[in-house]
Amino acid sequence: MKKSALRKYAKLIAKVGGNVQKDQYVELNIGVEQELLANYIVEECYKLGAKQVNVRWDSDLVTKTQYKKQSFKSLSTMLPHRIAMQQFLVDQNPVMIYVESSDPDALKGVNQAKIAKTRQALYPILKPFRDQRENKYQWTIVGAASPAWAKKVFPDLPKGKAVEALWNAILKTSRCDENQDPIKAWEEHNKELAKRTAYLNSLNLESLHYTSKNGTDFKVGLLPNVNWLAGGEETLGSNIYFNPNIPSEECFTSPEKGKAEGIVYSTKPLSYQGELIENFSIRFENGKAVEVHAEKGEELLRHMINMDENSGYLGEVALVPFDSPINNTGILFFNTLYDENAACHLALGRGFTNCVKDYDKYSEEEMHKMGINDSLIHVDFMIGSKDLNIVGHTRDGKDVLIFKDGNWAF
Hints:
By secondary structure, the protein is α+β, with helices and mostly antiparallel strands.
């Protein structure tokens, strides 16, 4: 990958993704194999006036060893310096930049029950800090090509060629290839997404009904006081505009907890906790996932929906046309950031409180009581297909076609 292309991407991440402001702290989470990109991101953050950029290095190999060799008691213990770090995040609201490059099979062979129990044990400790920070800071998730991930996506290519091909796909879908100005491209893209959400919000939808020839027949209820969102968001209080996901093609909202009936079939594999779940279905009753089946990873899927008392409820419904830039690449990325933006998807677990109208006037607890789900997980899974139809039912009794044959009907 050319250094000039990486520099261009780093600028997009710092300026459009995190939108780093003068005198802000920045926390950069990135894989150990991405040293050059990390350096460029750090440089761009300082150009924008960052006070201090702290780099947290991730390693699939080390993470796997930690889960295998540490006891559950050790894994689930928050040491004082980690507690102090959480308090720092609350006090300073640093920009959080997450660069994903992990192998989709990174934790294959690790005891998934041990991972789940660890997350469950840490959640009550972390949740109070998370709730204090909710909606108040900029964050962005982006991708970077690594050899292990690239070989999963392009198994027939030599390692070097696979990495180059994955980088080209990442830059293209991020609107950061050599043929366009990424800053301007994202300005235009956000405007187009805003038009979509404005129309969806004007409909005052009560529910959505999904049907597809693969067997999906599913209805989900929507809250009367939530908005559809897309693209960039603003921080609460400081009103700083940022883009949480690069790339992003979705229009999304949080549904009403307890209002989901029927069955949905996955259309892409799901990478969860370092393993893949493939060709699966989930059946909902009274809003909750009550039955799951999968050709691969069924036990892991069961762990997921039972992570806590609310992990089997939905936290998000997202609309993405089948004819999207990411899907049109013809690439299966085995990474949720990309695959979720190639197709309509749902998410189990935590909902988005900033979807609530005038959310700044309510506490987190009040919004959860309204019907926004709360959970330690938020896991997107893809259900979009080329023959997916979605009919919206409005609160004044009308049926409106939202998706026809996988794409927008308006």
